[in-house]
Design goal:
alpha/beta; Purple Acid Phosphatase, chain A, domain 2; five-stranded mixed β-sheet; 7 helices
Length: about 240
């Protein structure tokens, strides 16, 4: 590939104390892969649970330090909130030198108008999840939650993760996937011909026919594991998937 600044897209790392190998892989990736001038986009669920920007746990400190060091090398950082780290805020962004992106966010990737999303907004068949999402994203709910102690928030986060796992196990997979009509609606509403997102943990490239007959492409990012991780990478002409080791 040409030697030029690149855009790198990742999501769904689900960093947690009990997944030290994934954290180590992420730290290695940050040291070795993005180069000065590159733009790294983390499209949600960087953490398996984020209890607030005042988190003083070892995991939170290590991730802050790794991202701040990456920014200091001249890599631009852009982050979207996911369904597991929706309490990320401007205090964290200032600490690591990142920009917090809205969801969705429209930009240009390899010359194409592109929509960046975490992906959970696309899963409109999962009515129970969408209802819970609206409650968790309510500013009043978040204001009250962030005024609780760190220990209280850690306990609630652990309970949320446990319940989320139970619900996922009981919910049919197709209900939790992106709804094609919703995908087309977002693409047309934002006048984009490409969509990059995570959340569903079903990495693939999909084609969607828009109302005007044009084909738009949807790129689903990989969930990270210690033995399997990937990113989508773009320069000014091409977009490709890259294994991370």
């Amino acid at each position: 590939m040409p030697d030029m600044a690149e855009q790198i897209f990742i999501s769904d790392l689900h960093l947690a104390e009990e997944r030290p190998e994934t954290l180590a892989l992420f730290e290695h990736f940050l040291r070795e892969r993005p180069r000065p001038g590159d733009r790294l986009y983390i499209l949600g669920d960087l953490f398996d649970a984020w209890i607030g920007d005042d988190d003083d746990a070892r995991l939170a400190r290590r991730v802050r330090e790794a991202l701040a060091a990456t920014r200091a090398r001249g890599v631009q950082l852009f982050i979207q909130r996911g369904n597991r780290d929706f309490l990320m805020g401007q205090r964290l962004m200032r600490a690591i030198g990142a920009t917090l992106l809205p969801d969705p966010f429209r930009t240009e990737v390899a010359g194409e108008p592109t929509l960046l999303m975490h992906g959970d907004l696309l899963c409109t068949d999962d009515i129970a999840y969408q209802r819970a999402r609206r409650r968790l994203r309510n500013p009043l709910f978040q204001w009250l939650a962030l005024r609780r102690s760190l220990d209280w928030r850690r306990a609630r986060a652990a309970e949320y993760r446990r319940r989320s796992g139970e619900v996922t196990a009981m919910t049919p997979a197709d209900i939790m996937d992106a709804n094609p009509d919703t995908v087309i609606d977002y693409l047309q509403r934002h006048q984009a011909t490409r969509l990059i997102h995570g959340h569903t943990h079903r990495p693939a490239v999909h084609e969607h026919r828009l109302a005007d007959g044009h084909i738009a492409y949807r790129y689903v990012l990989d969930e990270w594991h210690a033995d399997h991780a990937a990113a989508w990478v773009a320069n000014d002409r091409d977009l490709w998937r890259e294994e991370i080791r």
